[in-house]
Design a protein that fits this description.
The chain is α/β, with parallel strands linked by helices. It contains nine helices and ten strands. The longest helix is centred in the middle third of the chain and has 13 residues.
């Protein structure tokens, strides 16, 4: 069997989705030079106008893993989409080909107009989605307040799975939030193992029964398995904090992509299958 995973990176313009795509490619070893939007040398912004204006105009497809990576996990393909509202049709076409989405939100500017439009569309289509809170290294970056804003304006089924140390500084780092084992962090993002359990129990009656059964001892693996199932069914939206500019939290996001977003399993000797969502002429 061959596993494939087509991931879209979506955001309001300037939230940092192209920078995140570039960082993911760099961390995966696909590229050996980290390009920048300001420098006009990213892998996915190839049009002269895109590089001059620093915005994405057309969806771009890039392989995040090589074909041989199928032995260790799914073959992952990234689709970097436009963030400007003028190019929403380009985004809509790409959604048909996706297995999951990373929705990028700026930890400084927060939820913006296009973020809400995109989230409504993703919820309507039932697309599994991870939320990446970017720019945690910037002055004015928020963690607790941003999580509350996401829950208020995007979905009440958002749950933080990482946290930030040194928020709003150049040295900001992201650490994993254990699903079992006490309280980490503070404020709105301070999820205890009980809080995570209650969150998952609220999303599924069968898990609720297990959670309330004193004779059942739920492990970290149980929580992760249930979280992945609810993500796949678009009933939970994990929030990862980090910075595409510094790379903080991006490896944890990559782990989340592999563990939480549902890959398609295809027979290697089966019939050819695919979805055409755009045609380009060179």
């Amino acid at each position: 069997m061959v596993s494939t995973l087509n991931i879209g990176v979506l955001a309001h313009v300037d939230a940092g989705k192209t920078s995140l795509t570039e960082r993911l490619l760099f961390n995966a070893g696909v590229i050996d030079h980290l390009g920048s939007v300001d420098g006009g040398d990213t892998q996915t912004d190839t049009l002269a106008l895109e590089r001059r204006r620093g915005i994405t105009i057309k969806s771009a497809v890039v392989a995040l893993t090589a074909p041989t990576a199928a032995e260790d996990g799914p073959r992952i393909t990234l689709v970097d989409t436009p963030g400007h509202a003028d190019f929403i049709a380009e985004v809509a076409r790409a959604l048909r080909a996706l297995d999951g989405v990373v929705l990028v939100v700026s930890a400084v500017e927060g939820v913006q107009a296009q973020t809400r439009v995109l989230m409504r569309t993703l919820a309507r289509l039932g697309l599994p989605t991870l939320i990446f809170a970017n720019k945690t290294d910037r002055a004015g970056a928020r963690e607790d307040a941003l999580l509350e804003e996401i829950r208020e304006k995007l979905t009440d089924r958002a749950v933080a799975v990482t946290r930030v140390e040194g928020l709003g500084t150049a040295g900001a780092r992201t650490v994993e939030r254990p699903l079992v084992g006490g309280t980490t962090g503070s404020g709105a993002s301070a999820e205890t193992s009980a809080g995570i359990g209650e969150f998952l129990a609220d999303g599924d009656d069968a898990f609720l029964e297990r959670y309330l059964d004193d004779s059942v001892r739920l492990t970290e693996a149980d929580y992760r398995e249930e979280l992945a199932r609810q993500v796949a069914e678009a009933r939970a939206y994990p929030v990862f904090f980090g910075s595409a500019a510094t790379g903080a939290g991006v490896e944890l996001l990559m782990e989340g992509i592999r563990a939480l977003l549902p890959a398609r399993k295809l027979a290697a000797d089966g019939p050819l299958r695919g979805t055409v969502f755009k045609i380009e002429r060179g």
